[in-house]
Design brief:
Elements (H helix, E strand, L loop, with lengths): L8 H16 L3 E6 L3 H14 L3 E7 L7 H12 L3 E5 L1 H8 L5 H21 L4 E5 L4 H7 L22 E3 L7 H10 L4 H4 L19 H20 L8 E15 L2 E14 L7 E2 L4 H14 L3 E6 L13
Parallel strand pairs: 1-2, 1-4, 2-3, 4-5, 7-9
Antiparallel strand pairs: 6-7, 7-8
Bound molecules: xanthosine-5'-monophosphate.
Length: about 325
């Protein structure tokens, strides 16, 4: 499909639409939407090719950003996509109970995702194909020469009884190319400018065991950081920003009394393709403002640090 030369988005769309039509004919396709650019562009391409024979499933695993499920679902309505929103946070927290190892946690989230997704996909009459927003770095990192670095989460490995074929029109593209294709398809800045967000969501940023309470703290801190980046005009200058809830508590003081609360790390990186990434030199005054706002507004956090580690040797996500 795509031969590695500079992408011509218009031509890419034409070819991809033709190939999707040839591949799936009049069959029904199901797709897991995540709210991110990759799966949204995949949905738009397939929608362009086969219209309402595409059924999209958007699973709320309870590890999305604050209010993200509702906000994204509303935006998809605006795009005219056929989307079913499924709330399944309880199943994910139950599956991750007691797990502290990052890879086991990724696997538990991935497996639960497959179970929830498969339950919904079975309800879609005549579905024969599974579409995914897989992009090239997902494949490269899951199968590097030196073994798996992180098990990337997508909807691979569905139960055999579903017998789905795979449709992955973006699998040879880098993220910036996906954005070019999205722009060609008329996707607005709200989606195009969104920072990448991992499939396992805040699950890989809430270190060690996942509990609804800890994820809630992380959602609140993340919302304060991201809102402030937007307000200060920094969001669009950064490739990806995140807050990480550390498995550490530290002593602090509030209203004259001792506190013993959580520590969060702020992360902001620039990258082209996620294979390497450099730390963003955020203004120190901004970092101070973010730390003060998070500590004041988020119950359960009394210390904020800034992660200044490039990739490699660190990865972007902490788990
Ligand atoms: P790392 O942490 O490997 O992240 O440096 C590179 C990029 O990939 C995103 N990421 C994921 N995306 N499923 C995804 O769809 C995943 O399991 C996953 N893990 C990491 C990460 O947010 C960064 O943009």
């Amino acid at each position: 499909m795509y031969n590695g030369e500079k992408l011509n988005p218009k031509q890419f769309v034409e070819t991809a639409v033709k190939e999707i039509r040839e591949q799936v004919g009049n069959d029904t396709v199901v797709l897991g939407l995540s709210g991110g650019v990759d799966s949204t562009v995949t949905a738009l391409l397939i929608d362009k090719a086969i219209g309402h024979n595409l059924v999209c499933i958007f699973v709320d695993h309870g590890l999305l950003r604050k209010n993200e499920f509702e906000d994204v679902l509303a935006s998809y309505e605006g795009l005219g996509l056929n989307v079913k929103g499924i709330r399944a946070a309880d199943r994910f927290f139950a599956a991750c109970k007691g797990i502290t190892d990052p890879e086991l946690k990724r696997k538990a989230i991935g497996k639960t995702f497959i179970d929830v997704f498969a339950d919904e996909a079975r309800k879609v009459q005549e579905a024969k194909w599974l579409a995914q927003g897989t992009i090239w770095p997902d494949i490269a990192e899951s199968h590097s020469d030196k073994g798996t670095i992180k098990s990337h989460h997508n909807v691979g490995g569905l139960p055999e009884d579903l017998h789905f074929g795979l449709v992955e029109p973006l699998k040879y593209l880098y993220k910036y190319e996906v954005r070019e294709v999205g722009a060609e398809l008329g996707l607005d800045q709200y989606f195009l400018g969104r920072h990448p967000f991992p499939g396992p969501g805040l699950g890989v940023r809430c270190l060690e065991e996942l509990t609804p309470e800890r994820v809630h703290i992380l959602q609140e801190a993340d919302a304060v950081f991201i809102d402030l980046l937007r307000k200060e005009g920094l969001y669009d200058k950064i490739w990806q920003a995140a807050v990480v809830l550390l498995p550490v508590r530290s002593t602090g003081i509030k209203d004259g009394a001792r506190t013993y609360d959580n520590v969060v790390a702020l992360r902001a990186v620039n990258s082209v393709d996620a294979v390497t990434a450099e730390v963003v030199n955020l203004p120190f005054e901004f970092l101070q403002k973010a730390a003060t706002a998070i500590i004041a507004q988020v119950d359960g956090v009394n210390r904020v640090v800034y992660d200044i580690s490039p990739k490699p040797p660190s990865t972007i996500e902490w788990e």
